[in-house]
Recover the amino acids of this structure.
């Protein structure tokens, strides 16, 4: 758990928000006394998501912050002749 003054937080907000994203709780102090905290948001998660976030908090894996988007599989046609897209383009002409 990190402890940070308001001034330090203002100067390095992104740094402390990233730490909270990674599962760490950040306590904000004013004149040495805790006044607030930033902590990871608890969302309703399925078991897989919960396990993945646990691994992030434990430092076993990291998250870039980007949304996951799997690549779509490509289909290779076998045989000779034009592809379906080539036939469609030919029909439009």
């Amino acid at each position: 758990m990190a402890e940070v003054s308001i001034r330090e937080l203002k100067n390095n907000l992104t740094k402390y928000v990233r730490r909270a994203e990674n599962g760490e709780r950040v306590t904000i102090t004013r004149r040495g006394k805790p006044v607030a905290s930033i902590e990871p948001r608890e969302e309703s998660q399925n078991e897989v998501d919960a396990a993945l976030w646990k691994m992030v908090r434990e430092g076993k894996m990291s998250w870039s912050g980007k949304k996951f988007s799997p690549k779509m599989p490509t289909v290779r046609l076998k045989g000779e002749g034009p592809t379906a897209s080539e036939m469609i383009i030919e029909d439009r002409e």
